[in-house]
From TrEMBL:
The protein's name in its UniProt record: Mitochondrial carrier protein
Subcellular location: Mitochondrion inner membrane
GO BP field: transmembrane transport
Segments annotated as Solcar repeats: 12-99, 107-192, 201-286
Length: 303
């Protein structure tokens, strides 16, 4: 019986999920690196209004002044963060799905959302300090910091051990929302596809579902991203909580300020998520079976 077969699923391989997630994240991020660099510049700036035209001229000016590779400034730092983040997120998601028995018996949407949220929380807590360091590096001049390690050392020396965790609250709330909604959307669409067509969707569809999940997740969690960036880069009034700071920005700069750069995300986010989910969908089954084969060879060399 199908139910029985599903119920007796063995635990997913964390190593395979981690590697697939890391590869997926790296591919997605490298594709959109120049757009990321541009987005952070506008998010942090209080004077420059964001528009597609302004973004393009920033990209052109950077290219003319510092060359093509300047658009990838901070990309190795991005990959140093994104690969473990995506790895932990996908591995944690597979484990939470298994622990919460998401695919067993009744298909409960709440559990799917919860698994995505928890996966986001785990991954964020582990790589957050790298993210702060990356934000500080990308808005600095070349003279300020020599590189990522230098940012970490300087921050620790001047501001103490928790310096790089500054602004983590909006990040945790945002990622629980985004992770929950994105993974929930992808899995729900996969289920609907399976019910309608009787077979699992291809990796291309997994990518399209990932893009859809990204749009939904981002729109809801974006204002928290703005708050986080400003807290990380020290542009928030000290002692102000997340909600108070959200309201403060809305009052001082208007509601639009909370969605500054979102139109770039409408393009960037879905592209990245699409590449990421499609890549994961392609590589995870392959790496899982590869790991399984390796294990059985080690365990049973004489069969």
């Amino acid at each position: 019986s199908m139910k029985m077969a599903e119920g007796s699923k063995k635990a997913p391989s964390s190593a395979a999920a981690f590697c697939s997630g890391a590869i997926a994240g790296a591919l997605a991020k490298t594709t959109i690196a120049p757009l990321d660099r541009t987005k952070i510049y506008f998010q942090v700036s209080q004077t420059h209004r964001y528009s597609v035209k302004a973004a393009l001229s920033f990209i052109r000016a950077t290219y003319q002044k510092d060359g093509f590779l300047a658009l990838y400034r901070g990309n190795s730092a991005t990959l140093a963060r994104v690969m473990p983040y995506a790895g932990f997120q996908f591995a944690a998601y597979e484990q939470f799905k298994y622990l919460l028995a998401v695919d067993v018996g009744e298909k409960t949407p709440g559990k799917r959302f919860l698994a995505g949220s928890l996966a986001g929380l785990v991954a964020t807590s582990l790589v957050y300090p790298l993210d702060t360091a990356k934000a500080r590096l990308s808005i600095s001049n070349k003279s300020e910091y020599s590189g990522l390690v230098n940012v970490i050392v300087k921050s620790y020396r001047t501001e103490g051990p928790l310096a790089l965790y500054r602004g983590i609250w909006p990040s945790l709330i945002g990622v629980a929302m985004y992770g929950g909604l994105a993974f929930y959307t992808v899995d729900t669409l996969k289920l609907m596809y399976k019910e309608k067509f009787g077979s699992a969707p291809s990796s291309l569809y997994a990518g399209l579902f990932g893009s859809t999940g990204s749009v939904i997740g981002q729109s809801c969690s974006y204002p928290l991203d703005i708050v986080r960036r400003r807290m990380q880069t020290g542009k928030a009034p000290s002692g102000m909580g997340v909600l108070a700071f959200l309201l403060h920005i809305a009052r001082e700069e208007g509601i639009r300020a909370l969605f500054k750069g979102l139109s770039m995300n409408w393009f960037k986010g879905p592209v990245a998520a699409g590449i990421s989910f499609a890549t994961y969908d392609l590589t995870f089954p392959y790496l899982s079976s590869f790991e399984h084969t390796m294990k059985s060879r080690i365990v049973k060399p004489f069969h």
